[in-house]
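Dear support,

I submitted the protein below through the web form. The confirmation email said the job was done, but the results page showed an empty box. After a refresh the structure appeared. I'm attaching both so you can tell me whether what I see now is the final result or a partial one.
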Amino acid sequence: MKNKLKIFSFLMVLIFLLPSANAYYIGDNKWEDNNSGLEINSSVDSQYHSAILSAANTWTDAGSSFYFHQIPTASGYTSNSTDVMMGLVSDPDYLAEERTVIEETINGQTYKRYSQVVFDYEQEWTTSATIANLTNAFDIETVALHELGHAVGLGHSEYTTALMTEEALPPVKRSLTSDDINGIKALYPSNRNNQEVVNTLRDGIELHINPTIVPMSEEEMTEKATLIVSATVKQNMPARWDTQDGSDPSSRTESMFSTNGYLIFQDTLIEVEEVHKGELPEGDNQIYVRQSGGAVNDVEMINEYTVNYQKDQQVLLYLFEDTGTRSYGLGPEHYFAYPGKGQLFITDENEAVNGIGNNVNTEELLSLLSEVDSE
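What the results page shows now:
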């Protein structure tokens, strides 16, 4: 029977293997030989190279058996390489993201085959800690250190002080906490014995995408959103690839790891009942909300920030224009909801639950929106 190819986004399957003193999470995959090459693509300006290498060295020096080794060329990704490639893309949805393709299972353990860390080139990046602390620029070493943590196989930690926290990082954090170090040591023990293993190739591949979103408070979301609407979900449209004609890319592995890698997206039609900020397209109270993820034939992409809209569901969404994602210009005019906090579901008890499962104080929310309405 043909296996369904699954593309996972943001480490949906995480294994809690830890004593109570730790809060780190280990993903379900790792590098087979306890090391990975690191290639900096030519899309990354040379001024950032030393900061990225410093982030890689921080993980190498953490005391586990894992290490990065630099690939000296910057010729781009090749399908025969087993490494992590660093690059830049235009993706206003996320500040940065890590992608991993899994192709092998050895004695029941899944192993990474390719990995890529990409930064949104539309953001302002810096190598200066002072500038990052005093301006809106992002410290590339801090973000690279976090994303490379995903690349080695770690998920998000429950500790808000850890580098691998799911919460917004401070402007500059260039070192690991004990929780981060315990995590990589658990994944790659320093006393690991090399055992003879039998290679078994898996059918298909898995793609994990670990996004880091641009952090915003509720006030910042309210200020920056193009539209804030209360609406009813009407219909989920069929998912499709973000190729020009929506067809399956001819070479999935390589196309997913090109600078503008192909992914799956899905549009949801909503009917707006109240506009709290902004203006709807003239003469139409129905609009499309786009998000990454979905299933096309034998391929399924799962993203932690993808929410499951249900027909007739009441929602409150903080929407932003698509200013240049991989699906820009494809399909109908559409918006993106701010991931997680910007997607709220209204229950029958008139309570609000956001896209990451947190309850939201409806009185405070409505008070904030009423201030927007009155402006």
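Response: this is the final, complete result; the empty box was a page-load delay. The radius of gyration is 21 Å.
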